[in-house]
Every structure is written in structure tokens, then in C-alpha cells.
Amino acid sequence: MSDVEPGGADAPAYRAAGVDLETADRFKRDLRSLVSATHGPRVVGQLGGFGGCFSLADLPEADPVLVVSADGVGTKVLVAQRAGRHDTVGEDLVNHCVDDLLAQGARALLFLDYVGTGRLDPHVARDLVTGVARGCRANAVALLGGETAEMPGLYRDGEYDLAGFIAGIAPHARLERWNRAARAGDVVLGLPSSGLHTNGYTLARRIVLDLEGRELDERVPWGGETWGEALLAVHRSYRDAVGPLLDEPALHGAVHVTGGGFAGNVPRALPPGLGARIDRSAWDPPPIFGHLARAGGVGQEEMARVFNLGIGFCLIVEPAAAEDVSARCAVAGTPAVPIGLVIEGSGVTWG
Amino acid sequence: MSDVEPGGADAPAYRAAGVDLETADRFKRDLRSLVSATHGPRVVGQLGGFGGCFSLADLPEADPVLVVSADGVGTKVLVAQRAGRHDTVGEDLVNHCVDDLLAQGARALLFLDYVGTGRLDPHVARDLVTGVARGCRANAVALLGGETAEMPGLYRDGEYDLAGFIAGIAPHARLERWNRAARAGDVVLGLPSSGLHTNGYTLARRIVLDLEGRELDERVPWGGETWGEALLAVHRSYRDAVGPLLDEPALHGAVHVTGGGFAGNVPRALPPGLGARIDRSAWDPPPIFGHLARAGGVGQEEMARVFNLGIGFCLIVEPAAAEDVSARCAVAGTPAVPIGLVIEGSGVTWG
């Protein structure tokens, strides 16, 4: 949102070197209205300074802890580029980051993006930031700036990478509680994903686009959507379902099922000495996962490490409260089903 | 520091698709000691959660405002890659971000990095993060995490992009004061840069490497250093000089001379109705700038828009205090010389 590499309308040598400064300046102006639509009363001052400003005065959280995370959307950007659809990966990125913070027990406050690209196509860039801004607005997160860097020697024409940074807040006591609350017997509730989310795209692209030679506008075998639509389905935000539960004492932790799958992520929410047994028959993975396994000859264990298998987020809940928490998630539009138990041990056991 | 794309030691299909998970896992472990060396008492908990945690309890700043910024180092990464020297661009990035916050009147607290790469060379990756960690330590900034994404379809082998996100803090009253403090007659003090910093590398590379056909291990014509050393000189951090001045009432604003040069950046520190007259004879630009202008046939105006011309940071100071502020900068190891005046009008006038 802020700094497109050096700007100015009269720089012939720089333009010859591959950086169009007029386009960059126009792009900056176009972004302001998109960005300011995400701003609430805590955003201080105007864009154009050297940093975005967010007031921390009188936060409702006691003993507040800032929780931060950086992420990208992996090679999902290459699917977007191949499909010519650039206004959804920004939402993917914001939702992914919001979910990372929820898994830590934090509510998201603000976001910044980084777009690295070869030559700046203003339409593509605007679509990208439109997606980021839409994701921010939907999650009540302030888009506080960002960087769009034209680097023609590094990125090929028409290609870009997209990364994001999120900051949120949690009361210290909640972090402490989540760090040690889980105990053997707790129920693992699984919340459905909307598709691959943002993980496993290098493998999925290889299977679908290279091995099978599918086109993105071709229909998937199991339904009416195209491969482009299936592969670009937006990463789900669990804010509406999980946000209101953060202060629920029966909630002992949360898991964002990202890179590494269940095995890589469930243990991050458990104290030492505890693991989880996940019952693979407790839910039906959407058909895309079975298709990828068959078409790519990918074994069950690797499938579960690379992909989310249809469960994008887990809650660790006291057994007595599992039904109530599940109902509250359902009311918020996200059904949550029991998919396993916390057990003595470590890691994830399938059974 | 945290999430290398999906991990696990037994994922043959994923490895065939170009992502080596074992290397990624080993890389993660190596990073922990580098990262934790940057952590002070406000860093809460361990790495491996879904986000880094930084306590905001009892901040010394009254009515604290979080100031955040995202940035990259532009195609300076391509110079590093060509030189095979990967442990300095991380420092560039941190220092650049710290200086952006100083220009806003904020002190930096925490940093996250994003590395996008083709195939993860663990030595290169460790060098990169070593530079980031060294920069964080030198600026007393906590390295709170980051993302290293292997994206073999997007980045060529051996190439990477590097972006960073910084968060810092400022008292609200200081932001308010800086927003309106500058007045006509204020002195603009210039602080020396260490070289090109992180701007203008697309043009500089084109001139030096393409037009002139220089090798990076060739000596520059004006001295003993090589072109590689000259082009990779680390972006200067102005924290030691400027940090102690932030509460000085005579300091009316600050400027980080980045992309856009004086014309693009000085106005960002001035209220509407004010501009600056900069005296180009007040300092001698280091020889690299004259060389680039001559060898590239770049006009004066474009030089001043693309490059910092030897001044990397400016302070806007009450005339009566200019000498004292200048002396305090010198004592901190960074001489500051008067290079211009704030005047009625707008933009930057040369004279």
C-alpha cells in the first residue's frame, strides 16, 4: 500500500531498467480508498507516513500480549496466475493469518501485505489488494500498509509472490491457560475446511496440472465446479465460530491445520506428555482429497501431512462442554464434529 | 523461523514435486538459537506456536500507538545472489525497517521475516536468517518469527526474495506533535548513508553490471573495495543517533530517504503548506553516485529521485537547537550536517 519502488513521473533511465514509476504512482493513489475502508477508530493518521499507526490505548485485554505472525499462500499464487483470477489469494492470506492468531488465542487487529512482482500490472495489483482489503474488512482487521516491489530481474512477467503480516492481541492469562490447560480425555473438535486452504499446492499442482494434464476451466469429476474454482476456494476464516469462544474456560487450546497437517500442528496446542488420537472415520474428507491421493499415488500418511483432509481447524475442549461448544460453532455457521481425543503420549495417533 | 511449507520426514511424493521436507525440518531446528538470541524479557513463550508473543504490559510510552511497516530490499537480493554473499541483506532489511519507524517517531520492538525461494539451500537460508538476527540484535529488536516458503515453480533455483515486517511503539503525543510541529525556517539536518542502502538497485545493476559489464570482484575506480562490497554495503541504522532524540521538543520530524529520494520523502515529514529547500552543495555525495550518473547518463533530477545521494536520513530541527542536535548525533557516531531549510510552499526545491 505504501512504497512502490522509487517513484516519480520523470525517470527515463529507471523506466528503461524496467520500473514504470508513473504506473506505480497511479497505483498508490488507487489503493487508498480500498485500504481506508478497513480502518476503524484505532487507526491513527493518514497513509503516506513511514508506517501505519494503531492506537493501543485502553485495550479491553488485561495484561495484553501482542501476537504476530508472517505467512504466504505458497504456490496457490501460481494457480491464481494461471487462472487469471487475482482477487481471492489476498483473502486466503488474511484468513490464514487470522486463523493462525485464533489458534494462539488472539484476536487479529491489523495486517500488512508484501507483493513481489516482475512488472507491475496495475489491474492485477489492484485485484490482489482488493482481495486483501476484502479479507481484512470481513475479519475486522485494519489494513495498515504494505509494500509492492517491482523486481523485474527476480520475478518473471505476470508472476508475483504474496506475503502477509498480522498482529493481534491476547490477554496474558489466556496464553498461560492455553499453554497448560489440555488434559487426557479432552475432546478434539474438527471444523471443516473449504478445500486445500493454502497448503500442499506444489504437490496438488503437480498432480492435477502436470500428471493429469487438467485445464483449470475443466469441470472436476465430482461436481459442477471447475478445477480453477476447486483449487482457488478461499481459505476459511474461523473468526466467527472461534472468536466468541476464546474466553470459554472449557476451551483448552486450538489448532490451525496448516503445513504439516494434523501431525505437524495438533501437537503445537498440547503440553508435553500429551498427544492426540484422531479417528479418521469421524468425518468424510471432501472428494478433492481422495482424487489427489488416487491420481498422485500419494499414501495415507503423506496425505495427512501435506493436506488438511477437510478439517481446517481444531478445538481442544473439556468433554462435558464438547456438545455445547459444537452447537455454538454450528450456530455461527461452522459445524464442529468430535474427531478425536487427547491422550497420554505425544504426536498424533490414527485410530 | 516458523513455517517451512509442509513438513515431515516421509513424504516421497512431495519431495518429487520439489519440496524437501527433511531439509526443511533441520533448517527449522538450526534457526531457533539464532532467533532466541534476539529475545528480551518481553518475549513470551516458545517458538513453535502459531505466532510470536510480545508483552505490552506497562510500556513506558503514554497512550501507546503501535507503528508498523512492511518492506523488502528490492533487487539488492540479486546482487547478494550474484556475489554469493547472503548474510548482509537481512541486516539491510532490519535496518531499513528500523529507520522507517524512527522516521515516524517510533522505537522498534519486534520483527518478522519472509523468505520466498525456489529450492531451500540450508546454508543460504541460514546465512539469510543470520543477517536478520544480527540486525535485530544490533537494534534491540526481537525476531519473533517468520516464514520460509519453498516455491520451486515461482523462484528459480538459487534465487530468493526477502521481505520484513516491523512493529514498534510511539507515545500518541509525539505522533501528534510531529504531525504539525515543523515550521518555515526549521533546519534540515542530513545524516550520511552508507551507500545505496536498499534503493535504486534495478537501475544501479543495469548500469554497473549490464552497461559497464563490471564483475562484482572487480575494484571500484575510486578505492580499494570491490563492486560487490560497494553494492552490498549494509543499509545504515540511525537508531543510535536518532533514538535518544525522539523526545527532544526541538525535533519536529524525521525523514528516511528511501525510494523516491528527497522529493519523495521529505514532504512526508512536513505539514501541508510547507516544503524544503535543499542545498546540494552542502555535502559531497560519495563517489559511487557520480559514477552511476556518468556511466548511466542519468540526469540530476532522476539521480535525486532514485538514489539517496549520500544522505540516508534527515532531521527537521528548530534553528536554535540545530547545533546541539548535530553534536549529539556526532557523539553517537553519525555526523549530521545542515543541508537545507523548511520553507513555505510544497515539495523539495534545490538551491
Q: CATH topology of the largest domain in chain A, what is it called?
A: 60s Ribosomal Protein L30, Chain: A
Structural class estimated from helices and strands of chain A: alpha+beta
> For the largest interface in this structure, which chains are involved and how many residues does each contribute?
A-B, 98 and 98 residues
Provide the domain count of chain A: 2
Please trace the helix and strand order of chain A, writing H or E for each element: EHHEEEHHEHEEHEHHHEHEHHEHEE
CATH class of the largest domain in chain A: Alpha Beta
- Please mark out the parts of chain A with pLDDT under 50 across 5 or more consecutive residues, or reply none: 1-10
The dominant shape of chain A is globular
Distance between the termini of chain A: 48 Å
Number of strands of chain A: 13
Q: Helix coverage percent of residues of chain A?
A: 25-40%
The fourth-level CATH homologous superfamily of the largest domain in chain A is: PurM-like, N-terminal domain
Mind summarizing the main beta sheet of chain A?
Answer: 6 strands, mixed
The radius of gyration computed from the alpha-carbon positions of chain A, rounded to a whole number of angstroms, is: 21 Å
Give, in spatial order, the strands making up the sheet with the most strands of chain A: 9-11-8-12-10-13
Determine the mean pLDDT of chain A.
Answer: 91
In the CATH hierarchy, the architecture of the largest domain in chain A is 2-Layer Sandwich
What is the count of DSSP helices of chain A, taking H or I runs of 4+ residues?
13
Q: How big a fraction of the residues of chain A is strand?
A: 15-25%
From the structure provided, what is the oligomeric state, counting identical versus distinct chains?
Answer: homodimer
